[in-house]
Design goal:
heterotrimer; A alpha/beta; B mainly alpha; C mainly alpha; B: mainly alpha; ABC transporter involved in vitamin B12 uptake, BtuC; two-stranded antiparallel sheet; C: mainly alpha
């Protein structure tokens, strides 16, 4: 867990992201009905909730990929009028659910799309994703789920990010890979705050500092991750899952 | 035997023309989701620009030289018109695909009518250098030399596009965009800038297709573009929108089928077989309509 | 009760239009000669026929959201089949018409059945290809049946006397009017049926329509077949009004012009389709006449020539409409009315 600025200097840190009364309506459904929360400038904030409650939609709305009303501020700047491209360029990295790597392009090409001249030879790739360096000429469509997830993560790291939006990165992965991904995310969080949508609670317990819980299109709980994870009744009530004894720490 | 050789070469020549017309369409739809009906107008523009160049340049230059210049002009005019159309008419309708298609429909009607108004509805004969108009003996068949020109042009275009797609950043963005345009934007890349370039490339290829189509028919006329456009569409659909190799293969297939069927069955049957081929392909493989949406 | 009240404007207009052949009024510039003279009657008959055909296209494009480029196929089928039925098979007009309609409907089932296996743009391309195939067949003139580029005239011996001849233009006018009225009623009825609701749902959001329990494929097929039937009927009327079948009906240009008509008037609206079809046909006919006008002669040669091309004016106007008024004239009209009511 990272130490907060507050503990060191005594001043309250400005959140990197503030979402205010966010509404998303499409296809006749009112998916987000006034979501408001803040993402601290450091560490991992987990966005939790049952299936279908609007977690992915929230990330998309922040980026501008879903039609939204309400306020979104990045480090104090109002970004509601920004295009998706601009938002990303200004430092909001996005790792979507289902990875969405470009199957017909090689690993190197997938990375160079963001990195420009640097692809698989970038330092961050060598450091965090050594396996990808070996696979640089392999078509991304032929990679395993875990490897594709690494590509999806690596490519956003080729840009300087002020905030990372990561959507269910461990979905469908074997336990060993889940740990690897969680490790990578923990290391990434040392340099940039992450808003993480996750269903896998052991991962949340392991790397999240703060949690925001959604239900029926609204925020129903926010607070330190430790608190929620230590309270099985509350966890069951909010998420409909019981925290089984941990397989790992 | 010599019959077959002649048919195959002329079929390939026809396929080459279709590829020239279809490659731009395929890229444009694959990347932008725009069904460009104005592509026929680009072809007519290229054809007429080439014809005007040839008649406008002094006769002392010789037919061959004038034709070479005309080809360059046709390509340039096509590129310019494609670029302007994208920036002025298509871009402001970002993501409103139906409206974009409708605009290209209106543009195609207006452009052809304008050409008819200025130069008349009749076909204007197009001069050809003697070597282009004559034939070469190939395994006993007398093959018209212009077919070789078409094939050469198509091969050149195919190689150039392949190189663009695989060795340049623009090509990388296009390939990624054809797969998943939204994700490219979600990675911070401004895909819209590539649109104008893609339209320009498509326009250039169409302009060339138009002029070479005029060489094939020995004349240029306002309705040539529209006639070729339908086959170009069919080629793109059969080959898979956004796939360059697919378009090339489909173009060859369509050209050969059309030529062979028209000869061995009856004139016109070839044209119908192409339609039948389209129906069959679409029923068997509806996924060939993948592309940006 | 309100349903009948709403029908009042349409009914009033119908009665007014039916009365026109009794009015020897002159509208210089607007119509050639007297209103009930053969020239004007013929023009109005053509405009009304196209209005009805546009309405038939609206069923598939405006109401169901299917971008079909093959509608001209069914219109041409109706027109050519009735001509062939009368000339080659020596059938009297009503029988030939019924035969033409039957064959056109079967054709729609086949083409629609195949084309609807794919969606969106693929569907558009398949319909375009089928229409092109028909165009090829017609122009190649197999067995001299279609008359190639010149078209096929109707067998005068088997036509009812009342529809023949220049002086009987008002009767052809009334026939066209009856056609539009019939098409209008058919479309009104259709929109109130389960199938009609399914079509509207499909147009809104196809995935959602399926989730809501509509049989999407069936709804689309019904739309195609009904549209084809009405289109084929329009083709028959077109042949009667013009005295024969015209290969223009098979061209891509005609197919596209149907699209233009519907969008210009306002897709999805009966008034829109009818107005669009009527005005487009009127403009197309009258703009040709302008080429001799002094206004155009005063312009430099090339500019004047271009502007005298009806399709140039219409195509450009269409682009403008798509840009600034994509809901067409009726959409604009609604906006104006709403503003008036608010104030």
């Amino acid at each position: 867990m990272t130490t907060t600025t507050h503990e060191r200097t005594g001043t309250p840190p400005t959140p990197i992201l503030e979402v205010d009364d966010l509404h998303v309506r499409y296809g006749g459904s009112h998916i987000l009905q006034g979501v408001s929360f803040a993402v601290p400038a450091t560490g991992v904030t987990a966005l939790l909730g049952r299936n279908g409650v609007g977690k992915t939609t929230t990330l998309k709305a922040i980026l501008g990929l879903a039609p939204r009303t309400g306020g979104v501020a990045l480090d104090g700047d109002d970004i509601t009028r920004w295009s998706v491209t601009r938002t990303v360029r200004e430092g909001v990295g996005y790792v979507p659910e289902d990875r969405e790597v470009f199957g017909g392009l090689t690993v190197d090409e997938n990375l160079r799309l963001v990195g420009g001249d640097v692809g698989a030879d970038a330092p961050v790739v060598a450091e965090l994703f050594p396996d990808l360096v070996n696979r640089r000429a392999q078509k991304a469509g032929t990679l395993s789920g875990g490897q594709q997830q690494m590509v999806a993560l690596a490519r956003v790291l080729l840009r300087d990010n002020r905030l990372l939006l990561v959507d269910e990165p461990t979905k469908g992965l074997a336990p060993k890979l889940v740990t690897e991904v969680a490790d990578v995310l923990a290391r990434v969080a040392e340099t940039a705050p992450i808003l993480l949508v996750e269903q896998n609670l052991p991962v949340v317990r392991r790397i999240a500092d703060t949690v925001v819980v959604l239900d029926a299109g609204q925020v129903v709980h926010r607070g330190p991750a430790e608190e929620l994870m230590a309270d099985p009744d509350l966890t069951r009530e909010l998420l409909g899952v019981s925290m089984r004894r941990e397989a790992r720490q | 035997m010599s019959d077959v050789v002649l048919l195959v070469v002329t079929g390939l020549g026809l396929g080459a023309l279709y590829f020239l017309a279809a490659s731009g369409l395929s890229l444009i739809y694959g990347l932008m989701g725009v069904l460009n009906f104005a592509h026929g107008a680009f072809m007519v523009a290229g054809a007429y620009a080439g014809w005007l160049t040839m008649s406008g340049l002094p006769a002392s230059w010789g037919v061959g030289l004038r034709m070479a210049v005309a080809i360059a002009v046709a390509v340039a005019v096509g590129a310019l018109i494609g670029f302007v159309v994208e920036v002025v008419l298509i871009r402001p309708l970002y993501r409103r695909h139906i409206q974009q298609v409708l605009v290209t429909v209106g543009l195609s009607l207006a452009a052809v009518a304008a050409v008819q108004g200025i130069w008349g509805s009749d076909a204007h004969p197009l001069e050809k250098p003697r070597w282009l108009a004559s034939t070469t003996d190939l395994a006993g068949a007398q093959v018209p030399n212009d077919r070789f020109l078409f094939i050469a042009a198509a091969v050149l275009l195919f190689s150039a596009l392949l190189a663009l797609l695989h060795f340049t950043r623009l090509g990388l963005v296009i390939r990624a965009g054809v797969e998943n345009r939204t994700m490219v934007e979600a990675l911070g890349i401004n895909v819209q800038r590539t649109f104008s370039v893609v339209f320009a490339i498509g326009g250039a290829a169409a302009g060339l297709a138009g002029l070479l189509g005029g060489v094939y028919a020995n004349s240029v006329s306002p309705l040539q573009g529209g006639a070729m456009l339908i086959y170009a569409f069919i080629v793109v659909v059969i080959g898979g929108m956004g796939s360059l190799t697919g378009t090339a293969v489909a173009a060859v297939a369509v050209g050969l089928v059309q030529q062979l069927a028209n000869y061995y069955a009856a004139s016109g049957v070839g044209d119908l077989s192409v339609v039948l081929l389209l129906a069959v392909v679409l029923l068997v493989r509806p996924a060939s309509m993948q592309g940006a949406h | 009760m309100t349903r009948h009240l709403k029908a009042f404007p349409a009914l009033a207009l119908l009665l007014l239009l039916a009365y026109l052949p009794y009015l020897p009024v002159e509208l210089p510039g607007v119509l050639p000669g007297r209103l009930n003279g053969p020239g004007a009657m013929q023009l109005l008959a053509l405009c009304l026929t196209m209005a009805g055909i546009a309405l038939s296209y609206d069923v598939v494009f405006g109401r169901t959201g299917l971008l079909s480029f093959g509608h001209a196929l069914f219109v041409a089928a109706g027109s050519y089949l009735v001509a062939i039925g009368m000339s080659s098979l020596e059938l009297p007009l009503p029988v030939a018409a019924l035969l033409a309609l039957a064959v056109t409907t079967v054709l729609a089932l086949v083409v629609g059945g195949i084309a609807l296996r794919v969606g969106g743009i693929a569907f558009a391309m398949v319909t375009l290809a089928f229409a092109q195939a028909a165009s090829i067949i017609v122009l190649r003139n197999p067995g001299n049946v279609t008359g190639g580029e010149e078209g096929r005239s109707l067998n005068r011996d088997l036509m009812p006397e009342v529809l023949l001849g220049v002086t009987n233009a008002p009767y052809r006018y009334w026939l066209a009017l009856a056609f539009v009225a019939a098409a209008w009623l058919a479309v009104s009825w259709l929109s109130r049926t389960r199938a009609g609701h399914a079509m509207a749902a499909v147009r809104e959001n196809e995935a959602r329509a399926a989730v809501l329990g509509f049989d999407v494929y069936r709804a689309k097929l019904i739309a195609v077949v009904v549209a084809a039937f009405l289109g084929g009927l329009g083709g028959i009327v077109h042949a009667v009004v013009l005295g024969g079948s015209n290969p223009h009906l098979t061209t891509a240009e005609f197919t596209l012009s149907l699209l233009v008509m519907v969008v210009l008037g306002g897709a999805g609206s009966r008034w829109g389709a009818v107005l669009g079809g009527f005005l487009y046909t009127y403009a197309d006919s009258r703009l040709v006449g302008l080429s001799g006008s002094t206004l155009l002669e005063s312009l430099p040669g090339a500019v004047g020539n271009v502007l005298s091309q009806p399709l140039f004016v219409l195509g450009t106007f269409f682009v403008i409409v798509v840009y600034f008024a994509p809901t067409g004239l009726t959409g604009l009209g609604h906006r104006v009315l709403r503003r008036e009511r608010v104030e």
